[in-house]
Amino acid sequence: MFAAIAPSYDLNNRVHSLWRDQAWRRAAVKAADVQAGQDVLDVACGTGDLTQALARRTQAATVTGLDFTRGMLDIAEIKRGRDAALARIRYIEGDAMALPLPDASFDALTIAFGIRNVQDPARALAEFCRVLRPGGRLVILEFHRPRNPIVRWFNNVYAGHIMPWTATLLARDRSGAYRYLPKSVGSFMDAEQLRAQAQRTGFHDATVRPLTMGICWLHRAIKPA
């Protein structure tokens, strides 16, 4: 399904977030607080937007982008091209629930709009904790239901009825991806439940704050030192 929409994924992200998706990713980069010489992992990196933002906006020693879908990674590689600023990036194929990476190998880990697509989020969070070094930061961007009733009504109409139709047309998609994606938001944990799950998995100081009137939410948590 994700391979089918990979070629038009970036265009749909821009159009249907009303060009807010890049601002959300900048907020995630800031929250990751990557210092010079540190290593960062971007899980469910898709076509590499957040991975590239981490490479461009930080002085990380290495930036690794991992995704389950080869088709997404192929687009990410094409987007990187020969840009010297992106030379620190390596892209690998892998499962968020069984990361093919050593223990304590990263100082920060990000995942944007991917945790709700993982079969077992608790298992993925445990893997994130495993590969982070003590004091490492976990940053999650995710859609949750807005708390304001007016914004929630608008979002339900837009994401539940308008976006699936227009996104499917843009992507020329027959996989049903853009019917699945808004439904996955409605069936996933809310912001507080995900924050609590991170705490139960072993992270400390888990916080969450709304972006763009609560349409998108930014989670941040720390692996204990």
Q: How far apart lie the N and C ends?
A: 39 Å
What shape does the CA trace take?
Answer: globular
Specify Rg, calculated over alpha carbons. Answer: 17 Å
Strand order of the largest sheet: 3-2-1-4-5-7-6
Q: For this structure, what is the CATH homologous superfamily?
A: Vaccinia Virus protein VP39
For this entry, give a set of tags:
Rossmann fold, 7-stranded mixed sheet, alpha/beta, 225 residues, 44% helix
Structure write-up:
The protein has nine helices and seven strands; from the N terminus they run H-H-H-E-H-E-H-E-E-H-E-H-H-H-E-E. It is of the alpha/beta class and 225 residues long. The chain has a single domain, classed as Vaccinia Virus protein VP39 (Rossmann fold). The mean pLDDT is 95.
Give the arrangement of secondary structure elements.
Elements: H1 2-5, H2 9-16, H3 21-32, E1 39-43, H4 49-57, E2 62-67, H5 70-80, E3 89-93, E4 106-112, H6 121-131, E5 132-143, H7 149-171, H8 177-187, H9 191-201, E6 204-211, E7 216-222
Parallel strand pairs: 1-2, 1-4, 2-3, 4-5
Antiparallel strand pairs: 5-7, 6-7
Task: Summarize this structure briefly.
By secondary structure, the chain is an alpha/beta fold. It has helices at 2-5, 9-16, 21-32, 49-57, 70-80, 121-131, 149-171, 177-187, 191-201, and strands at residues 39-43, 62-67, 89-93, 106-112, 132-143, 204-211, 216-222.
